[in-house]
Write a structure and sequence with these properties.
CATH class: Mainly Alpha
Order of helices and strands: HHHHEEHHHHHHH
Number of helices: 11
Number of domains: 1
CATH topology: ABC transporter involved in vitamin B12 uptake, BtuC
Shape: globular
Length: about 290
């Protein structure tokens, strides 16, 4: 494997990290909540794609048509009924609540589906790739995930900056009290932000199931990588999340190329380096959702 291919594979896996992390960044940017159940929610979405969509006579490759709207609705309900109550108490309570939700989800999945690995079946698409050079290969699935990540981030950026509802979300994120005095129902706005975050992480969960096997405990590792991507790019910066995800993916692939045991270590070292030199991240700003 040449260094060119190493960088390309890093960019591709970085697209997945960015897709996985954008909902985490949105939740923190608007609600100031670090959702520790973020990775487990993605795993639940993958299980829904595998076990539920075939029962409504929908191929797993088109599972996002059902799963993404469903998880958007679930996100709104969970925020209004569970997360909002913890927000009204203190930030530490939200960590406990989302941690508890993570534990419950993992144990329920283990009880229902056992620890056996599953995949989202997309047929022969999983093995198809583009070979622009003899020593360079680009998986069509990974390339599609990168493209979806860019489209999702572009949509969110335009939505937040060009629409009335998006500007309202940013206003609530910047100053909840002032927005409330202007007549904004911040709880409803928080619910919409959570719905978008859940929908994007559901999309990431389906993508993860297409790319590799998943199990009830897969969410924790993905949460760690998503959190690192958000911090590297800058908390609250959507495009920073993409850059952070790509940087993390490239670092991991370089580490793996040197020694397979260095893959995760290389990404963690980049994470620590960014924290040491620029704690706010590469594109971090003081204002939310820059």
């Amino acid at each position: 494997m040449t260094w060119t291919n190493v960088v390309i594979q890093g960019i591709l896996i970085g697209g997945f990290y960015a897709l996985f992390a954008c909902g985490l960044s949105l939740m923190f940017g608007v609600l100031k909540v670090i959702n520790l159940a973020h990775g487990d929610i993605a795993v639940v979405a993958a299980y829904v794609a595998v076990f539920v969509t075939p029962r409504v006579h929908l191929p797993e490759v088109w599972a996002f048509l059902v799963v993404v709207p469903l998880f958007g609705l679930i996100g709104y309900i969970v925020q209004r009924t569970l997360i909002q109550k913890s927000i009204d108490r203190d930030p530490f309570t939200t960590l406990l609540v989302t941690f508890g939700l993570s534990v419950i989800i993992e144990n329920l999945l283990l009880e229902i589906y056992s620890a056996n690995g599953q995949v989202v079946n997309i047929g022969s698409l999983i093995s198809r790739s583009w070979h622009p050079a003899t020593i360079v290969y680009i998986s069509y699935v990974s390339l599609s995930v990168l493209g979806v990540a860019v489209l999702v981030l572009a949509f969110l950026q335009l939505f937040l900056s060009r629409t009335g509802l998006g500007r309202l979300i940013r206003a609530v994120a910047d100053d909840r009290e002032a927005a409330q005095l202007s007549g904004a129902n911040y709880r409803h706005v928080f619910g919409i932000a959570a719905a978008i975050a859940f929908a994007t992480v559901a999309l990431a969960g389906i993508a993860y199931g297409m790319m590799t096997q998943f199990a009830p405990t897969s969410g924790g590792v993905n949460l760690l990588f998503a959190f690192e991507a958000v911090v590297i790019g800058g908390i609250g910066s959507l495009w920073g999340t993409l850059v952070g995800g790509v940087a993390l993916g490239v670092a991991q692939q370089i580490g793996a190329h040197i020694n397979p045991q260095y893959q995760v270590l290389a990404g963690n070292l980049l994470f620590l380096l960014v924290l040491a030199i620029r704690p706010q991240g590469l594109f971090g700003k003081k204002t939310a959702l820059a």
